[in-house]
From TrEMBL:
It comes from the Bacteria. Residues 148-157 have a biased composition (Basic and acidic residues). This is SRPBCC domain-containing protein. It comes from Paenibacillus violae. InterPro entries: START-like_dom_sf. Residues 138-157 are annotated as: Disordered.
Amino acid sequence: MNQNYTTTFNVDQSPDEVFAAINNVRGWWSEDVEGRTDELGEFKHHYQDIHRCTIAITELIPGKKVVWHVMDNYFNFVMDKSEWKDTDIIFEISKKDGTTEVRFTHVGLVPSYECYSVCTDSWGTYINGSLRSLITEGKGHPNQSERIANKHGLEHS
């Protein structure tokens, strides 16, 4: 049985629009991303002291598929610091009954992982909530950059 985490949604936008939105990682996942997210190569994601990872974009097929390989990962809330390391995150785009289907699979994110419930909840929110609204409404709900949040806080104090 396939235990990898997967989730799917359908939108009216074209496969090319979906592909562009997926590659706009700052627009739906996190503003704290270093590096290019729309070409083959590496980028780094970071969320407070809770999560850091280095991701290699290994496949980009316009309008069809995006594949990320997690090179390195750190969570501050799990015992096994290697969780996520060497896993693959796959976005598959296809036409289904006049709509565009987005299938997200995190290969290697399995129920035996300590982070499974937190990670699957988070992916569900980012993919079905934030990425979907970036595609359909032009605006996602990424993690705000700490630099922006901190700077903002100082201006109002």
